[in-house]
Amino acid sequence: MNRFFQRCKGRLFGTYPLKGDVLATAVAHALESGYRAFDTAQMYGNEKDLGEALANSAVPRDDLYVITKVHPDNFSEALFIPSVEQSLRDLRRDRVDLLLLHWPPIGGEIVPSLKLLEKAHRAGLAGEIGISNYTVRMMREACRTIETPLSTNQVEFHPLLDQSRLLAAAQDTGIPLCSYSAVARGEVFKHRLFDELAAIHGKTAGQIVLRWILQKGVVVNAMSTNPVNIRANWDIDGFSLSPAEMARIDALNALNHRVVTRQLVPWAPDWD
Q: For this structure, is 180 an active site residue?
C-alpha cells in the first residue's frame, strides 16, 4: 500500500462544487464521520471556504490532509508560485499537504509545469506533489522529467470506464491513482448488479462501487452533502468483494462511459 493511500486511509472528501455554508456543513459531517483528507482546487473557487471550515473545526491541524490543484491558467513562471501562495493563504496553511497540476497544459508540453510543481515543493509550499488527468504517456514522461516522486495521478475512475491501461501504468511508474467521478455522476446506479451485491453484503449500492475502487488500489474521492451518504461513503471497510464479484463489476468497464469528455472539457487530453 502506497504512502498516499495510507495517509488518507484510502478516502478523500471531495468539495466540488460546494461553497459557503453548504460546504461548511458538509465538511463538519465529513469530519464527524471520520474523514481527515479533503480535496479542493483553485478552479473550484472554494479554497477559502474550505480553509475556514477546517480552521473552525475541533480537529487538530496536524491530523488534516489537504489537497489542492493549480489551475492551468497559472502554469507560467510569473503566476505559478504566487497562485500557490494565494491558495495557502485561502486555506490558512503554511503549506499544502499535496499539490497537484489540475490538467496537462493545452498542447501537451508537460515539462515546464512539472518543473514549476517541483519548484513549489522545493520551496516548502507543498509536502507532496502529484498530477491529475495525465495519460499513460504523460505519466511516463513525468517520471523522466523530475526527481521528486509523484504521489498520485487523480483521474476519472469508476466501474463503467475501462482504466486498465492507467492502472498498469500506475504499477509501472509508481504513481498511484486517485479517483474522481467515483459513481459516474449517478450513472452506476442504473445497473442492477450493484443493488444485487449490496443485498448480499448488507451495504448500499454506492458502498459496493466505492469498495470496488478501493480494492483496485485506487483512492476513493467522493462528495456528498447528505449526512447519511457521507457516513456511508466513509464506512466501506469491514467487508470485501470476492474475486468473482470484482470480475462481474470489471465486466462493466466495457461500457466505456466517460463523464469528462472533450465536449465537457475542451482542453482535455486525448484519453487512453
A: no
